[in-house]
Amino acid sequence: DMTGLSQKIKERMEKEANKILREETKEKILQILMEKNQIEKPQALLEQEKKAMLQEIEHKHKNNLAHEHLTEEDLKELSEKRVVLGLLINEVIKKHNISVNNQLVREVIGEQAVQYPDPKRFINHFYNNKDLLQGVERMVLLDQAVDVILQSMKVIEHAVPFKEVMNPKSETDNS
Hints:
Layout: H1 2-36, H2 43-62, H3 72-95, H4 102-113, H5 119-127, H6 130-153, H7 162-166
Helix pairs in contact: 2-3, 4-5, 4-6
């Protein structure tokens, strides 16, 4: 029936909107974290991160997943950002004794798997590949850390119309 369908669509849209808001909030929090904490960036870590990023890009190109070409400058900036964030987030994780929520890891992998013709195979592939699994675990840990930071920051939530969430570029003020 139509009411059931529109209810489903509404739920889906709300879920999407929440996801986008959460990503934006996460970005803002990480930005604040980085601005407030000027930390030493170990050269070895920077080199390692740059190497990892180059491999990631190569992997994407090989599998036709991306065609971005990062300049040396972009690469330097991105790897610095990743290293600093990694160090700061590690502090939060240590301080609050956060460990990976495996239920969340399963959910994230499951959500990605749905987009593939053979979800089961996709899921098995993840659980049999240590690097892939660690990538998801890192992502989940980051989310958990952001939640902890959010709770301690007492972010004031305000309702944002769905349209604005989906097209944030249409803002008039540049604050």
